[in-house]
């Protein structure tokens, strides 16, 4: 039995079945490459779901995490520490200032913070309901789940305490109709990630900003997946110059360490009173040091420009492929989805893996690509060159 298969069997016996059994046990990584437990190498084009922004084993991340672990691993919120302060200052600065932060250990927790902040705002202003989008994803906790627009993952766990109204994503008119002076907050991804990297029509996020300004509803931008350079800007909202009132971040922020943030701007920065919210691990020194290393490296190595230029090379390369299973490519920067002409993404994902590329069948007809931001043009071309063969193999697998 291969080492992969042995570990998969033990995984199946030891873990709840919610994830199924993943196809590979990964053992180590270096840059954009990872190796499985049997020593097979892959080009990692999914980066642990848009998380490993500096790739694997990046010296800046290794150094920051090791040094902080040796100096001080944890304080809780009973004591403060410099890394968390530097991180909050840096994030606020990048997001345009005039705000305050709450640090978390995950994206879901960042959204829970945003939600509690919004609830306080709603109580203070006498507002009653929330708006979110169909197929949107905000997390799996009971609060974040109630805002998540995919019925198949939400409804088995209802009913929920919040009145949430779902609108079709990308339709500014529908949003305008749904948001009245009684609406507490709109939770919005600048591009829907889990739905399959689905960008809205241009101007949608700016329209949401206008609608919220007109009605007084809070605009909560969920940039847990889109933030920290993924689209070629620090934050996707910057493409439309429309800053939300509350911004949530996680995934790519820690480069693989668990850290998230909820930033609130202007009058909303001081919504919480002492005792209103908390987290034992949130803003932990090691996680904060990792996030600082990510931000510093993204800036120093100009990874925003790299995400733009290599993202274009990838998109142009894929767009030039003529294959009956490939409809096209969507997304921005190093955050893309290959759109298929049939619901065969699982077969494409496994054919890509057999060819040495890790990608993600995010939807039945869509393959998500969210590689480390350090991906080179040459590595992007390797994938583009292999793609016709991968699609051929996936078609054959489906016929048999
Ligand atoms: C991944 C994700 C979340 C949840 O983050 P976790 O770290 O898994 O808790 C929330 N919103 C969006 C847009 C995400 O992509």
TrEMBL record:
The protein's enzyme class: transferase
The protein's required cofactors: pyridoxal 5'-phosphate
Pfam families per record: Aminotran_3
EC number in record: 2.6.1.11
Chief location category: cytoplasm
PROSITE patterns documented for this protein: AA_TRANSFER_CLASS_3 (PS00600)
Molecular functions per Gene Ontology: identical protein binding; N2-acetyl-L-ornithine:2-oxoglutarate 5-aminotransferase activity; pyridoxal phosphate binding
Any GO BP annotation: L-arginine biosynthetic process
Positions contributing to pyridoxal 5'-phosphate binding: 107-108, 137, 222-225, 280
A GO cellular-component term linked to this record: cytoplasm
Keywords: Amino-acid biosynthesis, Aminotransferase, Arginine biosynthesis, Cytoplasm, Pyridoxal phosphate, Transferase
Cofactor note: Binds 1 pyridoxal phosphate per subunit.
InterPro entries: AcOrn/SuccOrn_fam (IPR004636), Aminotrans_3 (IPR005814), Aminotrans_3_PPA_site (IPR049704), Class-III_PLP-dep_AT (IPR050103), PyrdxlP-dep_Trfase (IPR015424), PyrdxlP-dep_Trfase_major (IPR015421), PyrdxlP-dep_Trfase_small (IPR015422)
Domain of life, source organism: Bacteria
Subcellular compartments: Cytoplasm
Keyword Amino-acid biosynthesis: yes
Modified residues (N6-(pyridoxal phosphate)lysine): 251
Pathway the protein takes part in: Amino-acid biosynthesis; L-arginine biosynthesis; N(2)-acetyl-L-ornithine from L-glutamate: step 4/4
Residues the entry annotates as binding N(2)-acetyl-L-ornithine: 140, 279
Note: May also have succinyldiaminopimelate aminotransferase activity, thus carrying out the corresponding step in lysine biosynthesis.
Assembly and binders: Homodimer.
Membership in a protein family: Belongs to the class-III pyridoxal-phosphate-dependent aminotransferase family. ArgD subfamily.
HAMAP family attached to this UniProt entry: ArgD_aminotrans_3
Protein name: Acetylornithine aminotransferase
């Amino acid at each position: 039995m291969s080492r992969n298969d042995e570990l998969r069997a033990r995984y199946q016996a030891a873990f709840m079945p919610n994830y199924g059994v993943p196809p590979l046990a990964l053992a180590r990584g270096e840059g954009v490459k990872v190796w499985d437990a049997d020593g097979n190498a892959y080009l990692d084009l999914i980066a642990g779901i848009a998380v490993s922004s500096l790739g694997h084993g990046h010296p800046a991340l290794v150094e920051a995490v090791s040094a902080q672990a040796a100096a001080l691993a944890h304080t809780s919120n009973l004591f403060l520490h410099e890394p968390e302060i530097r991180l909050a200052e840096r994030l606020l600065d990048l997001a345009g200032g005039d705000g305050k932060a709450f640090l978390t250990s995950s994206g879901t927790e960042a959204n829970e913070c945003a939600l509690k902040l919004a609830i306080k705002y709603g109580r203070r202003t006498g507002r009653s309901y929330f708006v979110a989008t169909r197929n949107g994803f905000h997390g799996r906790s009971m609060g974040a789940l109630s805002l998540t627009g995919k019925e198949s993952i939400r409804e088995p766990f209802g009913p929920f305490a919040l009145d949430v109204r779902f609108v079709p994503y990308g339709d500014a008119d529908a949003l305008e109709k749904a948001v009245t002076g009684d609406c507490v907050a709109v939770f919005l991804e600048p591009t829907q990630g889990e739905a399959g990297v689905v960008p809205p029509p241009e101007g949608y996020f700016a329209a949401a900003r206008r609608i919220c300004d007109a009605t007084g509803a809070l605009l909560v931008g969920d940039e847990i997946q889109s933030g920290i350079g993924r689209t070629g800007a620090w934050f996707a909202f910057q493409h439309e110059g429309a800053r939300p009132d509350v911004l949530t971040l996680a995934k790519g922020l820690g480069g693989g360490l668990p850290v998230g943030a909820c930033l609130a701007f202007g009058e909303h920065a001081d919504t919480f009173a002492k005792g209103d919210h908390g987290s034992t691990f949130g803003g932990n020194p090691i996680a904060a040091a990792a996030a600082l290393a990510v931000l510093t490296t993204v800036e120093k190595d100009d990874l925003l420009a790299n995400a733009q230029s290599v993202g274009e090379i990838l998109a142009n390369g894929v767009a030039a492929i003529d294959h009956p299973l490939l409809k096209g490519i969507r997304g921005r920067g190093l955050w893309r989805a290959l759109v298929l002409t049939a619901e065969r993404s699982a077969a494409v994902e496994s054919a890509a893996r057999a060819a040495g590329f890790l990608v993600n069948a995010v939807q039945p007809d869509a393959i998500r690509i969210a590689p480390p931001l350090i991906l080179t043009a040459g590595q992007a071309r390797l994938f583009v060159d292999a793609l016709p063969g991968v699609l051929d193999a996936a078609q054959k697998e489906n016929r048999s």
